[in-house]
Amino acid sequence: MASSAAFLRRACIPALTVSLFLAGLAVPAAVAGPGVQPAETAPTVEPSPGGAVAEPGSEAAAQAEAKASGEKVVVDSATTPTDLTVANPNGTFTRSISTLPVRMETSGGWVDISTDLVRTVEDGKTVIKPEQVPVDVTIGAGGSSTMATIDDQKGHSITQSWPFGTLPEPVLEGDTATYRQVLPGVDLVQIAHQTGVSQVLKIESAEAARDPRVVQMRLFLDADNAQLGQSAEGTLTATGDDTGQVELRTTGGQWWDSSQQGASATDPGTTGLTRPFTLSLGQDGDKQTQVFGMSEILDTPGLQYPLYIDPLWHQDRTSYVFVDTAYPNTSYWNGQFTDSTVNVGYLPAYWAPDGVQHLARTYYQFEGKPFDTSAAIITARLSALETWSSSCTPTGVASWITGNVSPSTTWNNQPSLTMRTDIASVAKGYSSACPAGTVGFDLMAGKNILLNSTKWTIMLAADNELDSSGLGWKRFSNVGTLDVDYNRNPYGPAIDSVQSGRWTDVPWDSKYVTRINKPKLSVFAGDPDADGGNIEVDFSVRPAAGGANVFTGAVYNTSPTWKSVSIDWGSTPALAEGDYIFEARALDIWGGISPLMSFAFSVDTTAPQPPVVTSKSNNLSPYNVAVTDYTDLYNEPGKVPYQFEISNSFTSGREMRASGFIYAVSELQQVTPPATVTCQTPPTKEFIVLCPETPKVVINIGTVSKTSYLSVWAFDAAGNVSGETYRKSNPKTVSLTVLEPDPVRSVEQLNLFGGAVWKDIVTTQASGEQRKPTGTCGTEDATGTTSAKALQLGAGAKAEYPSRAVDTAENFSMSAWVCPVGFNGSIQSLITQLAGSTPGAALEIDEVTKAARLQAWTGASSSHIVKGDPLVAGGWRYVTAVYDKINRQLRLSSTSGTTVTTWVIAASQNNIVSAGSTQKVVIGQSMTGTQQFTGKIYRPMLTKGMLTTAQFDSVQDAFMNADGTEKTGLLK
């Protein structure tokens, strides 16, 4: 290097120093400090949404273990030689990043690097090695010329030898080995480092300096699997034969004398300035040599002895640099031409060993993986050891975040300044009154830069660089530490629901609407730091067109577990119809804020107009006209289907077009549709939902009585249904009047089995009505005048009709007066029409509700069921049931006293199984002989066709004989 590079600093690394550091070596990381325990196996933690259980060594695993143990736990997966993250019991994390490797990985895990020298035996010989470093460093134990060997454990090594005979046994102290009087008045001092070893020659006097061996100082070099060379900058390199890359290199040579107070083999003293000299590659016979430019040193006027000379081999690093106005174009990258300390501030020329004024700045550069995108920094601090100051008078040192530095960084080529983060007024290391100590700088002003980078550069500079007093000149260690406390921000909330909201079309590609103008709002929220305390979820709603929030609210102190969190609208004024933005975010106890969730929705409280209903059946009068009443003078109920067209009556304006229609066929003029309906709503009772792709649809219906009513509603995407009392208008209802002739039916004899008998009973009969049974359901004889017989059934008893009564795939009707003795928690079969390997249809008593029910089978394991109210043990109840094929309805009615109640279920489009002509009817049991009914059955009926309420009454005349007695059997 050119001599004009002048005086450079050095501390902690010796004076005739030859220091070997491996270029590009991956140095393992140190163990956690006191009170920190490594994470063991992965504890089971609650999975995040869509995520898996925490992996061993992960943040989540360490966090769970820290919470359980109450101790800090290392995040093993994040550990590197320079980077250590620990999980804290309070749910936060602390990450410490160093500019130098401080730990290494061994077969037993991560351990602290220790450069203390120890004697050990290898291959029967005593050698000296650093206690724990990531490279294979061996220092000569004396008795030979070998000084040091450094092996990068990748097949490249360099051995340095003393050219002037055998070395004495060294004196060991910590990381330093001192070889006394290797030449008269000259000591050799070797110092171990994290990735190599350095040598310093201590020349005690001018007489010793005149020794020709000192004047022509050189060291023998022997490279294995590497070629030695000299760079344009004047440094020596070792390039791997197999890699073609520089594996080792030296810095420029440096020296200092004793003119600065405190100078020693490991420290240039006070101001920390050193001076350069030239190193070159030479040849001595068959040996390559490292040649010292001693004339540059010994010809300097006013030398004060001892004199210290230090050429340094080192590992390539990207950790620090300082810049100096005294040599504005010189790069001091990673200690080039300097010792292991760095300088800050102004030094007057009269204080400087080189007689030149200095203004210095220092840059620490940290590298590591970026923080997780969910991380929220709580504190961030740079720590650096101040080793010397000009006095005990504190002066300001400012910390700045800057652009990145590189080997080309000089005073005249500095990175841009991004922001100043802190000022520390300090003075440490001048004397015992203000001893050396660590100085901290707050970096929170630049936390967003720290979050979003993989390389962080922080500059230290005098707060007042114009202060020429020299009191601002300071020395810091070249090792800086970046400590960051962080937690992870809560998850960004995800929409759960806006009360009663729904999509108008394809989810996320259409509008989301609700008919509720004071809706409950729900989001999914949680925190990945599940053990880090409860969270707050803030809600707000604002107009989509802009303007202030119309609703704000918060749910406080809620569990961090991912779950639905809801807030009621409360007393906030109702929303007007329109478009809105629902926003939510979560906050944790550390001030972490989640991403903002925004969700657009609309409020629509206006129902669509009732649809238009038009007959399309030519057997209805009038034909193809939208009127209120239609008539068919030729067909009875359930006989033929009728076509009607339902069309959308949408006009314009904010009112939304109908999304679909609801229709029902009933003998009642007024029926109430389901409170909530969508296009996915299945048939419910007698109500059918249709969502055609066009504005109109044609339906086929049948009549259910002499006068039947078709009621049709339109509903929109918000769920508004035309005809609701708080909405608009009424449903569109039309009547259909058809014939109701008196059906002709016959009573067929039954075959009795297992003790089934016809038992006398007492009946009553009001004027104009059919007979009604009275009395008990048991086997005891009736008291009073008997006028009819009921089928008495008990254990093992049944009655059969030997052939088909109805084809269950077509319209059919069944009824009976039923009087159960009791209920046993099992189904009780009343009337069953078989249909091959399964029943076709059965009138039964439900095992749970004790109600009469009609069950119709669509396959071996599928059926439809309609249930009524519970029956009463010991009481008579008249039950009727109908299968309406055209309307796909099962209807069941039950009469108690003078009250008739009807239940309807709209069956699916699957057909009921068909009963063959030879399939029998079983009364009192199932087809397998189980489901025993115990009690009495009076006037059982199973007949084809769909009877109306009036017809169920009139057909019972078939049970009467002309003389007023009754027939027994099955009416079919």
The radius of gyration computed from the alpha-carbon positions, rounded to a whole number of angstroms, is 49 Å
Low-confidence stretches: 1-52, 725-729
Distance between the termini: 120 Å
Beta content comes to 35-45%
Instruction: State the helicity in percent bands.
Output: under 10%
| Mean pLDDT value | 86
How would you sum up the major sheet?
13 strands, mixed
Number of strands: 70
State the secondary-structure class.
mainly beta
* Anisotropy-based shape: elongated
Helical stretch tally: 6
Question: How would you characterize the overall build of this protein?
Answer:
By secondary structure, the protein is mainly beta. Helices cover 4% and strands 44% of the residues. The chain contains six helices and 70 strands. Strands 3, 4, 5, 6, 28, 29, 30, 31, 32, 33, 34, 35 and 36 form a 13-stranded mixed sheet that branches. Strands 1, 2, 14, 15, 16, 17, 22, 23 and 26 form a nine-stranded antiparallel sheet that branches. Strand 65 and strand 66 form a beta hairpin. The longest helix has 11 residues, at 59-69. The model is unreliable at 1-52 and 725-729 (pLDDT under 50).
